Amino acid sequence: MKQSIYERITDAIVADFEQGVAPWVKPWTGSADPVPHNAATQRAYRGINHLLLGMRCYADGYRTNGWLTFRQAQERGGTVRRGEKGATVVLFKPLDKDEAPVSSVLKRRAIIRAFTVFNIDQTEGLDDLEPTADTSIPWDPHESAERVIDQSGADIRHQGFQAFYAPSRDCVYLPERALFPSADGYYATALHELSHWTGHKSRLDRDFSGRFGSEAYAVEELIAELSAAFLSAHCRIPGQLQHSSYIASWLKVLKSDKRAIFTAAAQAQKAADYLLKPMGQQPEVSQQAA
User: Fold this and answer.
1) pTM of the prediction?
2) Which of 55, 131, 161, 211 has minimal Cβ neighbours within 10 Å of its Cβ?
3) Burial level of 131, CB count in 10 A (0-12/13-18/19+)?
């Protein structure tokens, strides 16, 4: 049992790393509760539990890092919504000398137990624990960037602590604007995720898995980075690198395929043109190789 818990947790983390993602890293601040904690006791989760709940919170777009067991939710007069899947946390309990087999006292000093907890966003009837938005940060909107976002027609949901495009739901998730240290950071992130949105099969139908194989995901990130840079220049806002973790992968692709950067730039221009078209912008004729 002990080994299966270790394997299950390790496999989940490895799966994220294999995708080139560290989901607990985010380019924004301002959350009222960035540290995972038990909403009933207010105790912060530590070590591996901090890591696991932080990953789950950012990946699923929860508005809060407060967690409860099923029983704790009931004790406070609430309940977990039907069908919700909980997150795993572990408890290490030190072994008393009398509890441990004589042959393993020196090797085993604790036992590990797994528990299931649920985010506040997965519950009902716990209004007193609902997060409140921080509106204290002033906002300086960019008119042109707002027009690109508003006229895209994309389903954009402001919630949670992570920015990403979900192909299965065909929607863009962004943290609340107040969580970004600047308006420029928000717009750069939004334009990046909208660029991913253009690749859906119902729009530009962008899929390079056949050409780039295992590096296709990194190439898609490069396209989104370039498209966001083109759009940022058009809107007269500073561009920002969103995913520096892909630089090594990009270098690998560019070194092995001398046409890759031309393809990425051409596809990025198509993505930018797609988002600018509703604004009456006429895309320029491109001579780039695709």
Assistant:
1) 0.57
2) 211
3) middle
d(CA 72, CA 90): 17
Phi and psi at residue 112, to the nearest 5°? -115, 135
Residue with tokens 């759009």: 231
Contact between 182 and 222 (Cβ < 8 Å): no
Q: Report how far residue 171's alpha carbon sits from residue 218's, in angstroms, rounded to the nearest whole number.
A: 20
